[in-house]
Amino acid sequence: MPSPLWFFGTALTILALVLLIWKGGRPEREAAAGLFVVQLVSGWVDHLIIGQFRWAVALVSLSLLVWLVRLSLRYDRWWLLFAAGAQLLALGTHAASLFGSDVLTWSIVTTRMVVWVEIMILGLIGVWEATSAPYARPQSLSARSRIA
Length: 148
What we know:
By secondary structure, the protein is mostly helical. The chain has a domain at 30-129. The chain has helices at 4-23, 26-45, 55-74, 78-99, 105-132, 141-147. Helix 1 packs antiparallel against helix 2. The mean pLDDT is 90.
């Protein structure tokens, strides 16, 4: 039977992804799509290893970092910038597993789990940012024409 921590992480992931898609704007939906794909593909490629290094999962992690950096540069959302920073930390754990000893395995896995929970919490903050921040609200057509 899975641990209560697994149930918490799964429930948080489902909640964050559903709210990002349902209540978020285009940046949140694009981020949710990337997070969902990473969650799916990571399970599919988890068995591809060289020694102790899960190279395919590391590539998936790198692709999520690139996706989040792209979104944070394209859209004016603070949560995306923080999520990209958290994903950089997760990517660093892959380098640590490549150069570290087998003793560090559980600390590396735990760090990745904590970073995932952090990104999901940042996703929930992103939903709040998309609905509350004045710069995140879509402008009406008449407001755009006054600016131009």
